[in-house]
Amino acid sequence: MIISKIDNYRNNTDKVFNKHGYIFKYEGQIRKLLIDYKFNDKSYLYKTFSRIILNNKKIIDFINNYEIIIPVPIHKKRLNRRGYNQSELLVREISKELKNIKFINNLLIKTKNNIAQSTLTREQRISNVKNIYKVRNNNLIKGRSVILVDDIYTTGSTVNECSKLLKENGAREIGIFTISKD
Q1: Angstrom distance (rounded) from CA 145 to CA 143
Q2: Most CB atoms within 10 A, among 40, 51, 93, 157?
Q3: 3-class SS at 117?
Q4: How many percent of the chain have pLDDT more than 90?
């Protein structure tokens, strides 16, 4: 079931990003499709998810509030093993249709091949992502609004850590978009 929601985190001291938009609750058939997309070599599902996103006016209006769109990176070892970054496929496809937002790939780099977040408890997820990302060229984001895209939001640890790094490197405002939220 499509819920298309935008959560506001402006006054939340635990979150570095300002808003989080998502389309689905992470359950049932959507959960199964996302697991297949991410872990079972069904990269073609990015086309389905992209169409759903692009046909959702509320979400497109939310995304269009930002100047730059970037995917959450995966480590090169995981990329080589999986063959694709599911977030990058999604961002690449939707950015083709969004002319007022700039897609920048590889702005964020994952420097450590950490344990997969999906295998950890909520508490372990926070420390698992500490200091494992870096920004390649902060001149591209200084003073700009950035939307960071990932597939699933569970605890928010990954996107919060990435957001912290983007903010430290000069991003003015950070939003998050995920396909689903747990």
Answers
A1: 7
A2: 157
A3: helix
A4: 76
